[in-house]
Amino acid sequence: MTTAIYPGSFDPVTYGHLDIVERAANLFDHLIVAVAENMVKRPLFTAAERVYMLKQVVTPYRNVEVDAFEGLTVDYARRRGARVIVRGLRAISDFENEFMMALTNKKLAPEVETMFLMTRAECSFMSSRAVREIAYFGGCLADLVPPVVAEMLRHKFRQRWTAAGEG
Amino acid sequence: MTTAIYPGSFDPVTYGHLDIVERAANLFDHLIVAVAENMVKRPLFTAAERVYMLKQVVTPYRNVEVDAFEGLTVDYARRRGARVIVRGLRAISDFENEFMMALTNKKLAPEVETMFLMTRAECSFMSSRAVREIAYFGGCLADLVPPVVAEMLRHKFRQRWTAAGEG
Amino acid sequence: MTTAIYPGSFDPVTYGHLDIVERAANLFDHLIVAVAENMVKRPLFTAAERVYMLKQVVTPYRNVEVDAFEGLTVDYARRRGARVIVRGLRAISDFENEFMMALTNKKLAPEVETMFLMTRAECSFMSSRAVREIAYFGGCLADLVPPVVAEMLRHKFRQRWTAAGEG
Amino acid sequence: MTTAIYPGSFDPVTYGHLDIVERAANLFDHLIVAVAENMVKRPLFTAAERVYMLKQVVTPYRNVEVDAFEGLTVDYARRRGARVIVRGLRAISDFENEFMMALTNKKLAPEVETMFLMTRAECSFMSSRAVREIAYFGGCLADLVPPVVAEMLRHKFRQRWTAAGEG
Amino acid sequence: MTTAIYPGSFDPVTYGHLDIVERAANLFDHLIVAVAENMVKRPLFTAAERVYMLKQVVTPYRNVEVDAFEGLTVDYARRRGARVIVRGLRAISDFENEFMMALTNKKLAPEVETMFLMTRAECSFMSSRAVREIAYFGGCLADLVPPVVAEMLRHKFRQRWTAAGEG
Amino acid sequence: MTTAIYPGSFDPVTYGHLDIVERAANLFDHLIVAVAENMVKRPLFTAAERVYMLKQVVTPYRNVEVDAFEGLTVDYARRRGARVIVRGLRAISDFENEFMMALTNKKLAPEVETMFLMTRAECSFMSSRAVREIAYFGGCLADLVPPVVAEMLRHKFRQRWTAAGEG
């Protein structure tokens, strides 16, 4: 049985991430979507909130588990017995960072393999950062994130809108 | 009549930005150079200062207006009746960010078009960040920004030089 | 009245090109889609065939004309009184070639402006080269090119299939 | 049981390709290294020679098969019952071409997944093209290709050296 | 006699930096490895610590000096009589930033030349940032930095491990 | 005394190449501009013509020699006792090819160093290919190549213009 992990900050999860989850779930027996608690400095959502949202949206996939971890990704992979790290590639700058991370991880844990999937064209422009910004200014999120995430984002920014008296 | 906006942080405006202003002013009936107040976290210049500097340097162009805005660029474009967003491209990393922003904006406002001009070769290395750093250390700004901007930068950093007793 | 040209080899036209045509037709009074006869060494389709296919697919746009030309693009732009050259950007390698071409053209004809649109995400992977290869091996073209182009491609490769007794 | 194919021109196979073979053989039950007969116009080695060299160098891997095919990669994948296409990524330009190919293949065969591995740092500069050029001029191939490939290259270029009276 | 400077933040020095030092030391009569005090906002190591580590690792090279400086690199180069600035290139994103910096420096000091060396393939994935992160989580540093740097990193993060009671 | 070679196809030499020649001539005692006879398949100019043009334009530099060579660049460097290969970088795609070439050359000849200079911004869009195309269609070459090269290009293409009755 092959276990793979799909690590990320997922702050929040977008349809682009879900595309990767669906495709990786088809390739491996067991897929762990793993919220990296320390990947970003000041996340918008707590690790618990990010895990909650992911759990809501991966229910259609039987072999997908959601978890959170601290520390090096390769150490987490070893702890969970995962032989594969899955990552999505969207753009050139992704490519470069991922390339360096993959080679560093190979040095630290030669038995763990990093594998890449290209994000579907329709999702290639989606980023959690853009989603946060659009939500902050009350823009439409319907094509970018699942309904539960849109709701959490609205809730997160409600106080601001209420206070400012805007839409 | 076609109205276009040229949004940016302009912190401060450089000769590279002015190159784009001049060329876009030739293509459209009305061009709004729009200072995005929230594009950068801690700008060197206030939005009012950035608008002031832009107003000084766009006086040669009859159909160019300077403004500031908060919120999503596409919302501002709609409010101003602009069908076109103009952006300058200098380098590969610009390309990628701009590509994602343009596709996201297209999703949010399909009727607004983003259009790119390539910055002139002689200006391709100019960035507001480099200008701020050179000004901070008292380097020569003559080839990078208009005189009024150089003066504002010197004024902004004067206290530092005075306090530190340096050149 | 602003006239723009959209030059290319269009060997053959894809839905990616049509996306640019539609958007540029909205921005300018008159758009000339211009088949560059000498842009590729050994095209699959003759210039006349490429013009024919383009004419079929641009009929919905009232202000779009199809033409063919030989020689430098800027010379053609001048002859036609076009102040704008429109180009689509899909990928990083496009960016670089286009950047060099735009700066060279600016040197040769300072009064002609090159303007870029980003190809829609859904079309970002489409290339005439891939279309030709897929057609050659009898693959499905429905999502990549308009029906008239698919028909022309099938016709072009029919002899091969007949001779080889395949598909 | 998961079958994967690793298609390429392998003209000739390098240590960079072998790195990918070894790692993909660890991830999947059955790996088919598939020589694409039509991927390059005028290959240095015939498809039969390329298959021969590959067969020599993959003997250590029990679950690896070598084959050759003509036509679209996705059609070959379907014929062989492969759910996965494996590709190696070395550099940015690889990234772009591979990205377009992967998205095109996804359109043609949604049930086949393309998966990428990053070539090990030590092999990141190796290309079949460079190998051919170095062999042509009699340069040292020991760090770039397995001995059997070096021998085949020497043999291929022997007539030239003999005729020219060089090295 | 040609003097060159190799400026950087070196927070901390990696084997990738040492590769550049060794090669530049072979090309020039006198090489100054120069810690730029203001290049990063909140360095992990003080400038004094970074100079100390560099001094330990450059002892094999007779013509290499270690120094620290504040202000513009070109001003420092002029003060030290250096005609050459040496920089290492690892990846595309390096390329872009370096390109802009080199052109800006050329504008500020036309008589100073910036020269680039490509980091050896085996070191191409090493970055000070990755080193800091791996050290923070107690990962293995043996292939990435010299022993003295690994020791300094362990010392820097010891309190954290002690306090948290982790490995 | 340090000898450097600046290899290339120079088909023909442009102001961009001359920028690199001038700067490299300042850095090294002896610079050999070396026409690589086999770098391109069907050059526009013979190696002798390319050497002739280069000799005309490097006369201002006392320490610059022009030569031609066949075979691997590192073998030529060794024959000439050159410790340094100089190359110009203009664009991202240059970067990648150059990176691979430099690492391959390092493998073949560890004692030869490849060093890069960034082409001046004003020349960053110049390529021999664009120059040949512009010359072919009778476009203006004054800003791109020295007068002797423009004259050679006009002569090369004269028959075409005469025959076609154009320009």
Q: Write the element-wise H/E pattern of chain A from the N-terminal end onward.
A: EHEHEHEHEHH
**Main pleated-sheet profile of chain A:** 5 strands, parallel
Oligomer: homohexamer
Number of strands of chain A: 5
Our measurement of the CA-to-CA distance between the termini of chain A, rounded to an integer number of angstroms, reads 51 Å
Unreliably modeled segments of chain A: none
Strand content of chain A: 15-25%
Shape of chain A: globular
CATH class of chain A: Alpha Beta
Q: Report mean pLDDT of chain A, rounded to a whole number.
A: 88
Task: Report the CATH topology name of chain A.
Answer: Rossmann fold
List the helices and strands and how they pair.
Six copies of one chain form a homohexamer.
Chain A: E1 3-8, H1 15-27, E2 30-36, H2 47-57, E3 64-69, H3 73-79, E4 84-89, H4 92-108, E5 113-118, H5 128-136, H6 147-164
Parallel strand pairs in A: 1-2, 1-4, 2-3, 4-5
Report what the structure shows:
The structure is a homohexamer of 167-residue chains. Chain A has 167 residues and is an alpha/beta fold. Chain A has one domain (3-124): Rossmann fold. Chain A is built from 6 helices and 5 strands. Chain A has helices at residues 15-27, 47-57, 73-79, 92-108, 128-136, 147-164; strands at 3-8, 30-36, 64-69, 84-89, 113-118. A 5-stranded parallel beta sheet of chain A has the order 3-2-1-4-5, with helices on both faces. In chain A, α1 (15-27) links the parallel β1 (3-8) and β2 (30-36). The termini of chain A are far apart. Chains in contact: A-B, A-C, A-D, A-E, B-C, B-E, B-F, C-D, C-F, D-E, D-F, E-F. At the A-D interface, α1, α4 and β5 of A face α1, α4 and β5 of D.
